[in-house]
Structures are given as structure tokens and as C-alpha cells.
Amino acid sequence: MEHLLKENLDIKIFNHLFSEDESNYFFRSLLNEVAWKQETITMWGKKRILRRRVAWYGDSGKNYSYSGNLLSPITWNENLKRIKKKIEIVSSIAFNSVLLNDYEDGNVGMGWHSDDEKELGKDPIIGSVSFGVDRDFYLKPKIKSNNDRVKIMSSNGSLILMNGSTQHHWLHSLPIRKNINERRINLTFRTII
């Protein structure tokens, strides 16, 4: 485990928390068994359909809203429960929901944002699990300061645990990488209050 600490940044990185066999198994099962849907978001008053597919799973009643979308949870499936149990053991956090993102290839990314919606409470802890191709993941402070950007390689079977006030003070992104032709599935575990 690697622990990154900077001003208002607290990140724990568990590379290869899941073995290669586990990671490949979960990647295939999530790709085929999750109820994926195409994401539509509202930006600057206009609706846009994105290439990224998403799914929202969780405990009953744990609704989540962002970018003009209100998501009602689908009941946990067995593989999501297994992944959740493993990350809860290493993080000591009880998560009650997960947003899954399917990045078909490097042409699909995620711009700068933070997971600080009101449903997540004051200092939300986000557990980000990745299966599939390795992708670089960046963080930068919301307010310009002397802090440099932080680059983390999000590898197959890894867990990136974003703690403390990280979501209130830092943005993160998954940049587009046109040279990547493989798929990545990312799960961001959350606790809706």
C-alpha cells in the first residue's frame, strides 16, 4: 500500500489488490452481467449522450444525482458483493453504493470533477476499483496553489481510496489516451447518507 499525503489530499493506493485471475474474472463478469446504460448528462443547459456506459448499484433507497441525472440503485449482484467485501476489509469503510463506468477504449475518458455531491456527506470517502487496461489517473487542487498535479497509474485490480477532505479540495480526471485500444471498467464505491 502506498499512502499519498499533501495539503487536503489523502490517497491510499492498493496496487493489484485483486490477483490477475480475480481481476480478469471480475472484468468479464461485469462486462456481461451489469445492467449498463448509455449516459446522458446536462452541460451548459444541453443534454449530451456520452460514449461511457454507466450503472448504479446499491442498497435500497440509496439514490444518487449528478449532471442532471437521478439514479435509483439496482440490487447488488453476487460479484459486486464480493468486490465490495474485499475493499471494505482493507479500507474499514462500509460502502452502500457503487457507480460503475465502462470506458470502451482510450477515446473515452472523464474530465476534471470531484465526487462531492450533497448525498455523499461532508468528507466522502471514495473507493475506486479498476479492472482491465491500465490508465493514468490525475488529481489537481481546485484552488491554484504550490501543489503540483498528482499522477497515479490505475492498474488492473487496483484500489485507489480517496479519503478525508480530498473531494472538497481536489479534482480528478481520467484523460483521453487515443493510443489505448482496450477496455477499462471502473467502480467507484460510495456511502450515500
List its salient traits.
globular; about 190 residues; 4-stranded antiparallel β-sheet; 3 helices; 14 strands; Jelly Rolls; 8-stranded antiparallel β-sheet; alpha+beta
Give a brief outline of the structure:
By secondary structure, this protein is α+β, with helices and mostly antiparallel strands. The chain has 3 helices and 14 strands. The protein has a single domain (2-190), classed as Alpha-ketoglutarate-dependent dioxygenase AlkB-like (Jelly Rolls, Sandwich), CATH 2.60.120.
Ends apart, CA distance between termini: 28 Å
Number of helices: 3
Strand content: 35-45%
Read across the widest sheet, the strand sequence of neighbours is 1-2-12-9-14-7-4-3
Uncertain regions spanning at least 5 consecutive residues: none
Q: How many beta strands in the DSSP annotation?
A: 14
Report on this structure:
- With 193 residues, this protein is an alpha+beta fold.
- It has one domain (2-190): Jelly Rolls, CATH 2.60.120.
- Helices cover 17% and strands 44% of the residues.
- It has three helices and 14 strands.
- The strands form three sheets. The chain has an eight-stranded antiparallel sheet. The chain has a four-stranded antiparallel sheet with strand order 8-13-10-11. Strands 5-6 form a two-stranded antiparallel sheet.
- A hairpin with a 2-residue loop joins strand 1 (2-6) and strand 2 (9-14).
- The chain is globular.
